[in-house]
Amino acid sequence: MSGVISKHGGTLALVLATAIAAGLVALAPATAASGDAPFEARLAGTAVYTTPTTVAFHSAGNATHLGRFAAGGVAALGPPAGSCPDGATGIPNVHTETFTASDGDELVIRMVNVGCPTGPSTFHGSGHWAVVGGTGRFADVTGSGTCEGNADFATGTFELALSGALNRR
């Protein structure tokens, strides 16, 4: 037997190395699928006060892992606070948004932001987001990141960008 191994040792080593490499390649997608996947989303639409302390958002956008989507959400506004970079009084808010992909799968995120005035009816907001739910391919997804956007309540429009990562539980 040792003669067979020594005679074919190079071939056996090559076969084993190829089998191990193939096994590692086969494992790579499973490992990548369970790790962080970069997430970027951009959306724009309407922003309208529904009460003095809530704003409703309706929009469309495009995001990694979702593609084109429709979205809707509500922001609950807190009392004004001096939390803007220039010392101005900002509007803290908690904004929950549901992104609905073309196949009906949903990704629900919650953002904690501060809107800082940039004009009489315009605001620039920034903060953090986290996944709070999902359906379909997003049912077992967690994730978080940062968000930044602008709203113009004179025109009733807004735009928002999110970046971060999603992770399958």
Task: Looking at this protein, list some descriptive labels.
169 residues; globular; disordered N terminus; alpha+beta; 2 helices; 8 strands; 18% helix; 2 domains
Structural class, judged by helices and strands?
Answer: alpha+beta
Low confidence ranges: 1-33
Individual helix count: 2
SSE string, helix = H, strand = E?
HHEEEEEEEE
Radius of gyration (CA) equals: 24 Å
Would you report the number of β strands? 8
The shape, in one word, is globular
The largest sheet is: 8 strands, antiparallel, barrel
Number of domain modules: 2
Mean pLDDT: 83
Strand content: over 45%
> Percent helix among the residues?
10-25%
Separation, N- and C-terminal Cα atoms? 48 Å
Widest β-sheet, arrangement of strands: 1-2-3-4-5-6-7-8
Would you mind describing this structure in some detail?
This protein is α+β, with helices and mostly antiparallel strands and 169 residues long. Helices cover 18% and strands 57% of the residues. The chain has an 8-stranded antiparallel barrel with strand order 1-2-3-4-5-6-7-8. A hairpin with a 3-residue loop joins strand 2 and strand 3. The longest helix has 25 residues.
Write the layout of secondary structure elements.
Elements: H1 2-7, H2 9-33, E1 37-51, E2 54-63, E3 67-77, E4 91-101, E5 106-117, E6 122-134, E7 141-152, E8 157-168
Antiparallel strand pairs: 1-2, 1-8, 2-3, 3-4, 4-5, 5-6, 6-7, 7-8
